[in-house]
Amino acid sequence: MVLKGSNQKKGLARAASALGLALVLSGGITSGANAANPGQPLFAGINPRTDGTTVIYQSITPPYDSDVDAATVVDRMQLPIAIGESQAILPDIDDGLAVWSETNDQGDLDIFGRQIEARSPFLIAGGDRNQLYPAISGSHVAYVSAPREVTADSFQTLQVIDLDGSGAQKLDSAMVSGGSGGFMRPAINGERVAWVRMEQIGDRLVHWQLKTKRLGDPSATIIAEEDLDIGGPLGALSQPAYDLVGDTLVYTADLNLTTVNLVTGHATTLNSIQSADFKPAQNPTTDGRYLFWQDYRATGSVWDLVDNLQRGTLSSDIMGYDLVTGTEFAIAVDDGYNAAPFVRNGVLTFEHHATPSDNALIYTASVSQIVPADDSTYFPETGHTLSGHFAQFWKGNGGLPVFGYPLTDELSENGLTVQYFERQRFEYHPELEGTAYVVQLGLLGVEDAQRRGIEGGAPFQPLPAGTASDGYTEFFPETGHRLGGGFKAYWHAHGLSLGDDGISDRESLALFGYPISEEFTDPATGLTVQYFERARFEYHPNNPEPYTILLGRLTADAR
């Protein structure tokens, strides 16, 4: 399709009208001032996205031409993706597959895709409607389908299509007849999609809902919702924005930043425009551990923020936060207007403008190089690293003899950040940040006994409730088992550091848990052993002291 001169503008304006929300076109982009911050400039452009290997973005040539280009992160080689006289906008990329919206012969927008190394694009979604806001993860592309023109019964649909399958699945629909409302660009990661649905409920009021669902689930979950005054003094700054990786969802609304664990449902507000230290945030992005966002705290107050917004002199920074260590850090500060951060697979990209109305440069930065140095320790014995809360916990509660070497780096499992060691699994609980229980231990003793199929054996059967403790053994009515001899001494001599004098019973309990068996001879090893909720004690009579009692390598045994 060829749209020339004013027809180019009319084609995109028609699509903007169908959106209900504004579709903003930048003017001509030339090289702006380099940001004196971490990261490297690529080329002039807007709306950057990355898959960790390639950055894709819009490049705009005066007066209205909009192409999609890409550049490799390592050697910064430029790759034209969608060029010519048709208009290509709002790209995304995952695993080398680019998607974007592009005008067709009628001036409407279709969605195309193209492998970076291929020359020919292919149609993903077309027809007599505008296909907008593509977002890709794997073979799934989520997008918004909007009418050509807004009428009394106009509606948008949110859809997802599997490029390896057939047909599009509708996730949601919204009326847009009032001129506002509809859908914002969806976020998709793996089998989960998140989106914002807006519905006009008054002259200036729009009700929005942040929703999420796994593909194939019968219904969506509403994460947050509220009314938005679209004519308020903060304007578009107050609109919701969001991102999703794994089971971590982050969003901003009214310049407040919230992170949500989608497994537990626990939500934590990290930054707030209402807080005493004034931390307004917008446009968050996450890779599951680190969060990045556009930050306005340098303006000083909400009144200064509004004043700078109206004057067109607003500045913004890019800030970051480590969900594991609870550490906030700066990325790009005090150098103009930094916007549109997006992170995937170890690479952060964002726009840098001298002022909001000036031209933009696309910047990229390696996450490993911009996050603050921590107390990381690399273990060549297993090839894994220990850092943050887990490093503090490991070092403060027994270290190598109690937990063993790390067998993995940190990873996401069942909605938690975890790390496996030879003898334990550490679990990070951000909802308990600031307490002694922010790191908890897995019930590996229970899991090992179940894995081996021995939990039904005689040693695991509870003793009568009236069993008495004596000078040699201690009876635990909670599980119906006794603790005696060297195992009893070892249990009481070790524990988590909870601030008690000496080593208290609750500290030993937090480390090992209750006994879930009596002492018995393990048929697999011939050792005298006893199982606890979080450990297996082993008696090694041929070892020198203090190594006659060791903890079983429960994680290593299971791998």
Number of helices: 9
What portion of residues is helical? 10-25%
Q: What's the alpha carbon Rg, rounded to whole Å?
A: 28 Å
Strand elements, count:
41
Mean of pLDDT: 86
Task: Supply the helix-strand structural class.
Answer: mainly beta
Approximately what portion of the residues adopt beta-strand conformation?
Answer: 35-45%
Q: Low-confidence parts lasting 5 or more residues at pLDDT below 50?
A: 1-38
For the sheet with most strands, the description reads: 5 strands, antiparallel
Question: So what's the overall shape?
Answer: elongated
> Gap between N and C termini, in Å?
57 Å
Please characterize this protein's 3D structure:
The strands form 11 sheets. Strands 14, 15, 16, 17 and 18 form a 5-stranded antiparallel sheet that branches. Strands 1-29-28-27 form a 4-stranded antiparallel sheet. A 4-stranded antiparallel sheet has the order 2-3-4-5, with no helix packed on it. The protein contains 9 helices and 41 strands. The model is unreliable at 1-38 (pLDDT under 50). Helix content is 13%, strand content 42%.
Which helices and strands, and how do they pair?
Blueprint: H1 6-19, E1 40-44, E2 46-50, E3 54-61, E4 65-72, E5 78-82, E6 88-94, E7 97-103, E8 109-115, E9 122-125, E10 130-137, E11 140-146, E12 155-162, E13 168-175, E14 181-183, E15 187-189, E16 192-200, E17 205-214, E18 221-229, E19 241-245, E20 248-253, E21 256-261, E22 267-271, E23 281-286, E24 290-295, H2 302-311, E25 317-322, E26 327-332, E27 337-344, E28 347-353, E29 360-366, H3 367-370, E30 377-379, E31 384-386, H4 388-396, H5 399-403, E32 411-413, E33 416-420, E34 425-428, E35 439-441, H6 444-452, E36 473-476, E37 481-484, H7 485-493, H8 505-512, E38 520-521, E39 528-532, E40 535-539, E41 549-551, H9 554-558
Antiparallel strand pairs: 1-29, 2-3, 3-4, 4-5, 6-7, 7-8, 8-9, 10-11, 11-12, 12-13, 14-16, 15-16, 16-17, 17-18, 19-20, 20-21, 21-22, 23-24, 24-25, 25-26, 27-28, 28-29, 30-31, 32-33, 33-34, 34-35, 36-37, 38-39, 39-40, 40-41
